[in-house]
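Hello Y.,

Per our agreement to keep a running log of every chain we model this quarter, I'm adding this entry. I've kept the format consistent with earlier entries: sequence first, then predicted structure.
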Amino acid sequence: MRGTRIDGWKRQRDVRHAAGIRVGGPRDRHDLPERRALALKKTDLYSSLWKSCDELRGGMDAGQYKDYILTLLFVKYVSDKAKADPDSLIDVPPGGSFDDMVAAKGDKEIGDRFNKIISRLAEANDLRNVIDLADFNDEEKLGKGKEIQDRLSKLVTIFSDLDFRGSRAEGDDLLGDAYEYLMRHFATESGKSKGQFYTPAEVSRILAKVVGITKDTRQDQTVYDPTCGSGSLLLKVAAETSRGITIYGQEKDNATWALSRMNMILHGNEDAEILKGDTITSPQFTSGNALQTFDFAVANPPFSIKSWSNGLEQEYGRFEYGRPPEKNGDYAFLLHILKSLKSMGKAAVILPHGVLFRGNAEADIRRRLLKQGVIKGIIGLPANLFYGTGIPACIVVLDKENAVSRTGVFMIDASKGFLKDGNKNRLRSQDLHKIVDVFTRQITIERYSRMVPLSEIADPKNDHNLNIPRYVDSSEPEDIQDLHAHLHGGIPDHDLNALSGYWDAFPQLRDQLFQPNRPGYNDLTIDVSRVQQAILDSPEFQKFTQEARELTAEWFDAHRKQLRGIDETTRPNDLIAALGDNLLTRFKPVPLLDEYDVYEQLMTYWHDVVHDDVFMIMNDGWLEAAKPRKIMADKDRKLSETPDLVVGTGRSAVKYKMDLIPPDLIVERYFVTERAEVDELMSAWEEASRAVEEYVEEHAVEGGLLAEAMDDEKINKALASSRVKEARHEGTDADEVAALSHLIKLYNAEAVAKKAAKEAEAALHLATLKKYGDLAEEEVRVLVLDDKWAATVCNRVGEEVNALTLALVRRIQELGERYNKTVRILAAELEEFDSKVIGHLANMGVE
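Predicted structure for the entry above:
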């Protein structure tokens, strides 16, 4: 280790050169590697966009400042795309680009200049009243004079740091995801009144999949959303196809319609036909007195709107199954969509649960729809998913194909599967995948899904009521207290039989943990406190754990070639879809483990880490993506990120971020001996510090040898040295001098240990930094694929196995403690306590 120690700024500079890092002064912003302008990661983009919102937050609410942010995002994107693609469908004229906005920074008339730049871009592309709704010269919202000048200058600076020329939005739709990120946050901040323009992405994907959109869907097939809002639902449908689909939408709110138009362009769907108007009273897609029809329809209409019929003049034959009630428009939208479908058309519509069971006019419509067989399925969703309302909703799936021969409605109660996310609930990847798998394959799962015969729905006791709990009971089985077990002891067979999944996975474990007490009842063979360790030590459990790890390793090896080949042509969404589906398939036969829980572990890691890794590799290549980058402080000397590695100390310290390969992985593979030495020296330093603390604690008490030296101050080496001199000069107690002298020796030993540990750690950091520059491309692949991705997924699957074990332990402990003491034992204990109380009272003279 001593041979690797490097001192001084000059040596640090040489190491950074070797690591492939450009070297300059610590304040030189141009010292950043150029790749940062090209590899725009999703997390970087999100951070920058939300930082831009901070510049506007306070002067206006989210419903207002979203227009400014999304307009700037649009101008920046189309400007960058025009530079990279001469054939771009968006024309960026002179004086109408984002570069013109940058040139306006610091100008006293910056707001007016921004408006003119956006106006030129709008005129060149027939986007008047679409991208020019936000007034960048509005003093009430943005401030006056220097305030608006500084605010807009900061805002444009944030966006100028983004570069979409290198982002492969076509393959992964990075920008679309960012747009969606902003829409979600705007919906969250805007509250109920402004949240209806956005449908959560997870729900949108479910609609796209259950309606029958696949990779094989043709480009000339059509999809329609009569209440398209910002267009997110339509775009999720388009994303499910490999060649695109022809998009039609209608939205009555002008500002939201403009958002949708921008959204389509940002996603590369410039030719989508999005029209303005109220769908019920003024449908725009018509042919004479008939509605235009489409292959697919998806919608998230406003729930239970009361004014749906205001101004309604022409019905277009939409209400042939009955007229919806005047004060509730849910069925008005459903019937409009049904009428807008071709003869083989399919639709998925989000509606409140009331449409499933409300009576009167709605009951009549429901009965007729069921008799016609057009309702294919119903999916109950968790409550509080949507931004416009907290009530639970359902997806009604309509399908005209084979409607006449349909004999049942497939129902899913997915209300229990979600993740709490702030003040909203959110569907996890596993919830989405399970819903789609079960619906498309019509799989019956206890307490989750079943095909309900139309004869059962039409039975007089149900009378065409479609309320899901009537047909799918998703409630957990009641935990029954066994009176006989409470009286006589023993754990009932029915409680152990309920754990059959565990006994299937570990066939011998039940006999190891339990023995017969009497017919139908069992006793634990060990103390309840030892159950967990007994399970962990079980050969069957260890084998199960090892098999899960091996299965994960086999899965990863099956995709190794695909992962090694990640380059600029990779489509990340297709990549993770293949990885995830194969993982589900491999774990489906495994007893006990829920394959969707395993899938969720992969997807969480993908969203948190791997997606960004893949994106960097796509844009920069393996070697370049692995290079460290310096983190620069702002003018207030604050860092925007937490560094992964720090080289040097004090003002000369240089901080680095390793995006693709964390330093720990380098150390674990190449510097095991050095790491062990550092750990040993760190332990010696801790031990030396502990010796000081213990000695001071022992002797600094009142009457102790160091009591006088403390003198209301926390003693340190300088104070101890000063006190020794005083004590020797005064000729005081020799024991105090000896104690102080010993303390100084301890402080010296601590300083020596600290210096050795810090030097060793600094040397290790420098060696680690240098190693980044020495890495060959194959070494980078091994570090990323094996040491990072494969190892992490394997560990996460192991966590699922451990979670199952803990659940079994908790249940066995609960049952063991519940029936451990019979009523007879409890009565005896009560009698004993009564006797003690009577005895104590007698001793106090109380009869």
